[in-house]
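Below is a filled-in request sheet from our internal design queue. Each sheet records the structural input a requester submitted and the sequence that came back. We keep these sheets so that new team members can see what a complete request looks like end to end.

REQUESTER: design group, bay 2
PRIORITY: normal
MODE: inverse folding
CHAIN LENGTH: 407
BACKBONE (tokenized):
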């Protein structure tokens, strides 16, 4: 029996998302989420997608990630999809920060684990949880390839001119301060899909990808290779986000320390959790913001305008970086569903060849599609992202390439 299945795990600090995908058929066999790990009110929601099974939900204390993954394995076994199946080829893990070292998906060994641990200071919220997921899965299936797919890997192709901050080189190198970028699996997937929409190979097109969710980032992709991205050392830099400020003058931090008597931790919370759209208008759901705008709420209107202004600046900047743009691709929750954001982001950029067709833009669909008029020089597209499929694809390709080399 051929091993064609990949289990994708995304371990958060108190959650575990998973998908089981058959790479031969491309079918998702099961999806699920464990929430509030470590609390009395933990919840596991499991949905089998084959055999007519129904979604199942259980609540009750789940002490840790090891217990969570064992519960997931039990749910999969109920559907005949257990972790002991000979059809399971590998487990692919989302790892947020891979630094400069990890430029490709990587089979996990002790050396890889040590390097991911060393990167904890630049990803203190994410890498520890990712490591827990890896160690738990390895304990359950030590014989199975465990593969790390890094959020930062797609952006390691950025030239030094884009990835370096203009600070003292020795200090930067000592503390690993540089622009790493995030959402890399999404940017890789969407840029490739945008090329497919145009009927071309990724190597033939230049794409600006706008990943707009609660976290948001932009990237400039030349011929399938990332040459710039908006997030930096951390996911705080760049676009206005749901709760993150994006770009601010660094002196704001010193000002708040001196004048506002705020600690570093308080400013960290302010910029990461109390800024962005929620800081501007008290709401980070774009649907609610649009509803308030329709009712004449000026605070919501200003928040929307600031959001779009920053977005438009990055489109223009990355147009300049690339020199030629073949497509601008919107993705993620806001990018895929908020037609007013897409319309506003390209409004006034007609001289750059950008426009949206109002009727096409208003269509709701789960399919990749072009929403620009035929006369537009640059295609404006909506491309639903699929980070889990991208992780599975990279994991499966790596495992199969390794198997082929060993034959």
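RETURNED SEQUENCE:
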């Amino acid at each position: 029996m051929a091993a064609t299945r990949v289990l994708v795990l995304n371990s958060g600090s108190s959650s575990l998302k998973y998908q089981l995908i058959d790479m031969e058929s491309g079918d998702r066999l099961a999806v699920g989420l464990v929430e509030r790990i470590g609390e009395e009110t933990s919840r596991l929601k499991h949905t089998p997608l084959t055999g007519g099974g129904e979604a199942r939900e259980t609540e009750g204390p789940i002490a840790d990630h090891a217990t969570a993954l064992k519960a997931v394995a039990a749910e999969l076994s109920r559907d005949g999809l257990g972790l002991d199946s000979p059809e399971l080829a590998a487990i692919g893990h989302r790892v947020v920060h891979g630094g400069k070292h990890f430029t490709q998906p990587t089979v996990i060994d002790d050396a890889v684990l040590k390097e991911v641990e060393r990167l904890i200071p630049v990803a203190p919220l994410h890498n520890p949880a990712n490591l827990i997921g890896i160690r738990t899965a390895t304990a359950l299936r030590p014989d199975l390839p465990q593969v790390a797919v890094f959020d930062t890997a797609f952006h390691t192709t950025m030239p030094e001119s884009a990835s370096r901050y203009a600070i003292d080189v020795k200090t930067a190198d000592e503390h690993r301060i540089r622009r790493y970028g995030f959402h890399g699996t999404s940017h890789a997937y969407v840029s490739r899909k945008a090329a497919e929409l145009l009927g071309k190979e990724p190597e033939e097109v230049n794409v600006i990808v706008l990943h707009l969710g609660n976290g948001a980032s932009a990237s400039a992709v030349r011929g399938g290779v990332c040459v710039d991205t908006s997030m930096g050392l951390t996911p705080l830099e760049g676009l206005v986000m749901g709760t993150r400020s994006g770009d601010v003058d660094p002196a704001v931090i010193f000002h708040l320390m001196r004048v506002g008597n705020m600690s570093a931790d308080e400013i960290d919370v302010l910029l990461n959790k109390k800024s962005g759209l929620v800081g501007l208008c008290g709401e980070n759901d774009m649907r609610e913001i649009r509803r308030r705008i329709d009712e004449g709420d000026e605070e919501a209107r200003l928040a929307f305008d600031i959001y779009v202004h920053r977005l438009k600046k990055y489109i223009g900047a990355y147009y300049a970086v690339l020199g030629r743009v073949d497509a601008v691709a919107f993705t993620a929750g806001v990018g895929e569903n908020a037609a007013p954001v897409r319309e506003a982001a390209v409004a006034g950029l007609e001289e750059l060849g950008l426009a949206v067709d109002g009727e096409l833009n208003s269509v709701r669909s789960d399919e990749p599609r072009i929403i620009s008029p035929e006369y537009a020089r640059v295609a404006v597209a909506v491309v639903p992202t699929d980070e889990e499929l991208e992780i599975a694809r990279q994991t499966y390709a790596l495992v199969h390439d390794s198997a082929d080399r060993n034959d």
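SHEET NOTES:
- The first helix runs from residue 65 to 78.
- The radius of gyration is 22 Å.
FILED BY: M.R.
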